[in-house]
Amino acid sequence: MNQTGVKIAAVAHYAPARIVTNEDLTRWLDTSDEWITSRTGMKRRHWAAPGQATSDLAIAAARRLLEQTNCDPNEVDCYIVATCTADYPFPATACIVASKLGAKGKAAFDIEIACSGFIYGLTVASSLIRSGVYRRIVLIGAETLSKIVNKGDRGTAILFGDGAGAVLLEATQEDSFLSADLGSDGSRPEILLVEAGGSRRATDAAAIAANAHLIHMAGREVFKFAVNKMISATGRALEKAHLTKSDVDFLIPHQANKRIIDAAAKYLGMPPEKVVCNIHEYGNTSAASIPIALSESVEQGRIAPGNVIVFVGFGGGLSWGAVAWRWQALASEGR
Ligand code: UT7
Prior knowledge:
CATH superfamily of the largest domain: Thiolase/Chalcone synthase
CATH class of the largest domain: Alpha Beta
CATH architecture of the largest domain: 3-Layer(aba) Sandwich
Order of helices and strands: EEHHEHEHEHEHEEEHEHEHHHEE
Bound molecules: oxa(dethia)-CoA
Shape: globular
């Protein structure tokens, strides 16, 4: 097989219309705008409508993506959706997305590694292109976490939002993919999990009464893990790419907590203008947070060809990963 390069040819995002502010949350939770802002950096998040599923958000983002490049959905070889809030336990959400976009027959699969989903997805999709298996892949991070959050638990209800971010990856001569560092530790799944609804525990009446079908998180433990892994994964990805911290133009981290991002950025010596953070607007959208942040940065004209970006994520699994990436001109910008 031919070895080729890969680039992000287009990027787009979509968030549901309903915005839930910190003030809104105080109507039913014992919390305050001051607590949420100071502890997380979040001000608003988007929540999907009752009938709106993850594939609906993914499709909206993918349509915007393909429109930008006038790309027919059938010219895409493979659709990948990174999500931990799939439409169904099976079939894969990506199959529904591809068919509804009009690309019935194309390869499609989901990646479920919670908040690290986009990082793992970017690594897998890039590898499929670089090895010559496919020439064009749509990778979407999409979540409807509002459907699995315990709205009565102030420790988690305030954190999560819904949205989708999508990238079109294309084969090209130059290579944007510089390195990846992925990892996991499944020894203590209880730190961050949805216990019921899989093969270990059914979603029966007892499970529902115990809220076992909703997100449980040991916040402080996850916080410490997140800061550590953001730092170590970024360091290893840079090392593998033979780069140093000073070569990095932008750090685009998973948006879980502004304090996590700030602590890791400080340790890494990254000034705020190099660190992308839109957590105030979206909260934590798990696998969707990095591509949404990338899409907004590109819309704002912040990122230029040649820039080195480190994407870094962490979350349930526990899992983590970082990808070092050299930005190239979008398809709409030409060469
Ligand atoms: O993407 C997946 C990865 N997830 C994460 O990375 C999340 C990581 N964890 C966090 O971001 C933080 O741990 C939280 C934002 C979840 C919590 O912040 P914290 O500073 O770690 O607070 P805490 O859990 O230690 O709680 C401190 C206090 C407690 O009260 P007492 O026991 O000190 O009286 C909580 O009950 O704050 C209380 N508290 C709240 N108060 C007002 C917890 N949630 C709230 C709230 N409003 N929403």
